[in-house]
Amino acid sequence: MIKESIVSEFKKIVGEENVLTSKEALKAYSYDGTTSWIHEPDVVVFPTSTKEVAAIVTLANTEKVPLTPRGGGTNVSGGSVPIKGGIVLCTTKMNKILKIDKENLTVTVEPGVVLMDLTMRLAKEGLFFPPDPQSFLGATMGGILAENAGGPACVKYGVTKQYVLGMEVVLPTGQVVNLGGRTIKNVVGYDLTMLFVSSEGTLGVITKAELKVNPLPLAKKTIMAVYDDVAIAGESVFRVLENGVIPDKIELLDNWVINRIEEMMPMGLPKEADAVLLFETDGIPEAVEKETEKIVEITKKYGARDVRVAKDQAEADKYWLARRAGFAAVFGKAPTVLAEDVTVPRGQIPNLIKRCKELAKKYNVEIVVLGHAGDGNLHPSIMSDEKNKELHARALKAMDEIIEGAVEFGGVLSGEHGIGLEKAKFFRRVMEPAVIDLMKGIKALVDPNNIMNPGKIWE
Amino acid sequence: MKELKELKKIEKFADQCMKCGFCTFFCPVYQEDRVETAVARGKNYLTKLVLKGEQEFTPEMGEIIGKCLLCKRCVVNCPAKAQIDRVVVGARAQMVKDKGLPWIKNFAFRKVMSNRKAFGRYVKLASKFQWIFPKGEGNIRHLPDFLKALGQGRHIPEIAKTFLRDQVKEVNKPQTGGQPKMRVGYFMGCATDFIYPDIGLKVIDFLTKRGIEVVVPKEQNCCGAAIYFSGDMETGRAMATDNIKAFKDIDYILTACGTCSSTLKDYKVYLPDNEEQQKAYDEFAKKVKDITEFVVDVLKLTPEDLKLRKEFEGKTATWHDPCHLVRYQNIKDQPRQILKSLKGLKYVEMPNADLCCGMGGSFSVYHYDITKKIADKKMDGIKATGADIVVTACPGCMINLIDNAARHKMPQRVHHILELVE
Q1: Domain membership flag for residue B226
Q2: Which chain B residues contact residue A22 at CB under 8 A?
Q3: What is the ipTM of this complex?
Q4: If you placed Cys at B23, which of B34, B74, B130, B295 could pair as Cys (CB 3.0 to 4.6 Å)?
Q5: Nearest Cα to A221, choosing from A141, A305, A308, A282?
């Protein structure tokens, strides 16, 4: 339990209404978007300024109380679960978009800004922030930065780290530092911004960020390619890219997902298909036309059974709605879903998919494949039930081997979700001990009392 | 462990939530509070803990479960199709079962009681509402609501001098003479009866002009929304029984109140306790039509059949979607079709037309501060249209829209859709 004196000090810093201690409120801050990671904090604090964040962190450091930064709580790694108790510092009330600079194509945000709110605001100025984690309706910018979030549009546009120019961070000691700057090029010393873009909240609290944005593309087209073999679909991904077209999105849905979507909302997806690839190209209208033609040509050449170009935005929206529904289809179908986030070099996608199929047979579990095929980031999901011990044991074994497979194929165990609690045991298995030591050394230097989101990544 | 009969009924809905947190974006209350207990995910999680025996229905839980507009924005946007409205109503029902009414703290009660003037006005008002409540219950259920509404600087609508029920005949023959081409029942609803009787007169006039006989059964009761959404299922069922009886031999039951039409239709969703009730509510629901859907889908009136009233000629109108029409009944196109077909009226769509106005029945009484903030967004949307009039089809929304338009010193008048038509 936290000392009463600390709680009353917090009330002085942020005001009575911004400190929660009721047991109901603490329970509501014990979870994130994962199924099984639950731990209550002792207090939840809502700062509204950098100064308040610094005061809260300083006190936590002096008193050596664990502090877990949290935004929208949509993460799926256990990263924002206060596993050691203590303080949850919630940034949802720091949600101002401070500045949109059209001349320099930058935006300045507070950490609690929800990505969708930013997207809507930027659209009014003809701009957009390309990384598009599919939790955009609830995910806040602080978490998107700290997790280095990705999403479908990363094939062409890259992930969050490519859009961070600078940030203001409250270090675990309470000190406020400004990292990076406002320019695209910046090689003044170590690029410490990158340290925080992947820190998963273990190195400090991001209180402000300067981000790069792009002008909204003038045109978009969606192409759906249908396959009799999911592995051939995997091959189509790199065939399109090696032939000179970089779509902004290439998404994969397998037969299981297609059928669940059709059950939920019939929209004419080919139910007998083994897999479907959804491509989107964006840019100048003429270029989009040419790219679309090229995608149709290449996918047909490399084994697509049927290729459809959405005739208008309404049809395109339908396909993308299906892709988003895929996520619900998977999670709604089993009591426990082990959702993987493995990422392999694109050329290895067919191998990874084959491995998933073999493992499904070997362990007699249902493994569903969907994901961002364009960047090799797949989300093989294993249907399980925690209450069914025998089934769950098989599912866990299959998950272990998927991850081993991904690493064997030259990939990584997480592409965009982060390690948090969910992947910690694999982290130790796949990382070089010397690299883990280096990370721990950095952590000890920045956070000498180990108060900042303790218990995550390697612990 | 205690028996949790009401909660057990909704357990399967509570299990649907996968904690993705998308509801945070759609919840008008979360958008203001930005606290997890305000949103569906938090409410659902805590209710699941009660089911597991890890959480009690404390007064704080009462506050948390009470602080929901039941606007269903989270429900229609949920990727897992979790029916959080069922969970919230189920939790309220369990609380009423365990602790009785009222489970929401009556913080403003005393504030108003101490205001002699407001109290006097209230008592006069309350005496007129007595009839709503089953005899012998001893307390007046709406009482705290009306008390609290006073004394908060709110524009309280004036109570009609003569209630609608005292102005209408039980049987209203077609003005066209001859055999009626259809016979329908009209369900007034409390707000129309006591505050906007003119809307009710308009409904009857509109229908009888078009060769329809309108029956207004005297025994009809309140729809029960405020009652059963607060968790008092038993009284809700008593009201359902009254209304089913009152409209027994009628093919269509029409109402011009979005909340009433959805409530009457949804007895089957929220209230049944056994198969017999389920069957009776299912049958009853089939007969209920909102006036907007009746005009478009049943009467299939064409632009020639609809004439704009003179005073609205040349005006620009915008439509506010009541939660109980757009999300509870998926009635969205029908009112727009009516407005667009009125010659001489210009129609503009407002941004976020389907955003809740913030009223949420008694929500606005307990959480008037949040209601005002939500309504501010609605008012911004209305201002952006440049419309002269705001049109809707729910007297509850009308009360709140009028209150907030006045607070914002806006020139826009608020009208029920039928008021625009000859």
Answers
A1: no
A2: 60
A3: 0.94
A4: B74
A5: A282
